[in-house]
Amino acid sequence: MIIKKKLVLLESEMRVPNGHFLDYLIESTIYFQDKFKIIWFLNKNCDLKKTYIPQNVEINKIIISNYYRRNNNKLLYFFEEIFFFFKNFYDIFYFALLFIKKKKIYKFF
Hints:
Blueprint: E1 5-11, H1 19-32, E2 36-43, E3 57-63, H2 74-101, H3 105-108
Parallel strand pairs: 1-2, 2-3
């Protein structure tokens, strides 16, 4: 049994499957499918119904992106961006400590 390395593709902004967002995922998956196990991390609100998805793709809808549109709700958009900014710093700090504890910090970076 050959163990394939993993290739993780991230798409945090795609809510509906169209345009260059989906094109990037499909083209990369088809090109690298023989060399890697492909994993997609998508926006939680992404709706992939009635969409062509290559076979042997693991799809994880775990990314939370901005719910507010910048033009419609500028104040809420701003507060949410500030929240995600601090949350990202917290996540980086947490995982850096976790990898330091397991003595695999080079893999983290």
